[in-house]
Design brief:
Elements lengths: L1 E9 L12 E10 L5 E5 L6 H8 L7 E6 L2 E2 L5 H4 L6 E4 L3 H4 L6 H12 L4 H14 L16 H13 L5 E5 L7 H18 L2 E5 L3 H7 L2 E6 L2 E7 H6 L4 H9 L48 E2 L5 E2 L3 H4 L10 H6 L1
Helix pairs in contact: 4-5, 4-6, 5-6
Bound molecules: adenosine-5'-diphosphate (ADP) and magnesium ion.
The site of magnesium ion has 3 residues, from helix 1.
């Protein structure tokens, strides 16, 4: 699955639609998830992660740009031609309570995609459902129960089983482990790794939990105000963040021990996506902002150790990657 220069603007609905500007949720993002690859997508709430995830599995059509899957541009495929490709692209959400039908048994919920996409007998569907429940760590006796009889963690396992039953090539996990207890989270992360190794599944792992991303992703993309500001191998991004925003995220994450800055919240707030500033999206919060950042959007530039960063400091100022961070940044967060 490959996204190329994807833009999403939400046009206002209703009474004031002519007087209100659209929300520019995603602004020119290119990102791919390969076979057996797990890509982490991080960034503060509202930066466009879920919107991008929904575009990736064609739950949403982008305003412009292309989404390729299995050699086809799927962003504008009519539903009839999208249908055979749907099983290959699945998404798991944070709140499985809203995505599971409360009036359906868990067994039926998990097997439902089979009914829609494959011709199987009821007995075969049930057998596959059992197999899936087992895979995600639930038991056969759970098949005939209803979602409300389960804990949040168990419901999340059910939602995962439902997403996996069609053996997708790419799964977008949108905060899928954010509301579950630590041991469930660890089991789910271990399962994702297994599915990658054994079945070659690819994952776009969206999370504000950087520890989970670090654990599960081989590559990370950092989003800010609708744009990807940094990408790279997980180890490099965490050890030597090249973008001041990535640095701010890492040092403000709960439990962050790097440079003793754990527990702090990021300084300031991102600007409105209705009216993003010209130039670098991070300019209003960046402790190292330069004149140029106010007018010119920095182009993605390769970083030592892998990946790319969109920051003028990379070409104009002191290089951040692989070096100790400047005092201003260390003190800033
Ligand atoms: N259906 C929608 N209609 C209008 N605005 C939306 C819609 N979905 C998301 N947005 C807006 O788009 C921006 C990005 O949202 P989202 O993709 O949910 O961010 P994230 O998942 O990173 O928190 C936010 O400003 C959000 O309010
Ligand atoms: Mg979201």
């Amino acid at each position: 699955m490959t996204l190329d220069d994807v833009h999403v603007a939400f046009s206002p609905q209703g009474l004031f639609r002519r007087r209100t500007a659209p929300v520019r949720a995603v602004r020119g993002v290119s990102l791919g998830v390969g076979e057996a690859e797990s890509v982490g997508l991080v960034g503060e709430s509202g930066c466009g992660k879920s919107t991008l995830g929904r575009v990736a599995v064609r739950l949403l059509s982008p305003t412009s740009g292309t989404v390729s899957f299995q050699g086809q541009a799927i962003q504008a495929l009519p539903e009839r031609r999208m249908r055979p490709l749907r099983p290959g692209l699945q998404m798991v959400f944070q709140d499985p309570y809203s995505s599971l039908d409360p009036s359906m048994t868990v067994g039926d919920s998990v097997a439902e995609p089979l009914r829609v996409h494959e011709r199987l007998s009821g007995a075969e569907r049930r057998a596959r459902g059992r197999e899936m429940l087992h895979l995600v760590g639930l038991e056969e006796r759970h098949l005939d129960r209803y979602p409300h009889e389960f804990s949040g963690g168990q419901r999340q396992r059910v939602a995962l089983a439902r997403a996996l039953i069609l053996n997708p090539q790419v799964v977008v996990c949108d905060e899928a482990t954010s509301a579950v207890d630590v041991s469930t989270q660890n089991q789910i992360l271990a399962l994702l790794r297994e599915l990658r190794h054994d079945r070659g599944m690819g994952f776009l792992f969206i999370s504000h939990n950087l520890a989970a991303v670090r654990h599960v992703a081989q590559r990370v993309a950092v989003m800010y105000l609708g744009k990807v500001v940094e990408t790279g191998p997980t180890a490099r991004v965490f050890a030597a963040p090249a973008h001041p925003y990535t640095h701010m995220l890492l040092t403000s994450a709960p439990g962050a021990s790097r440079r003793g800055a754990g527990g702090a919240t990021p300084v300031g707030e991102p600007p409105s996506p209705v009216n993003p500033p010209a130039g670098c999206p991070f300019q209003t919060r960046c402790p190292m902002v330069m004149e140029r950042c106010r007018v010119e959007m920095p182009a993605p530039t390769p970083v030592d150790g892998g990946g790319e960063v969109a920051c003028h400091l990379q070409t104009d100022g002191p290089h951040l990657a692989g070096r100790p961070l400047p005092e201003t940044l260390r003190a800033g967060v």
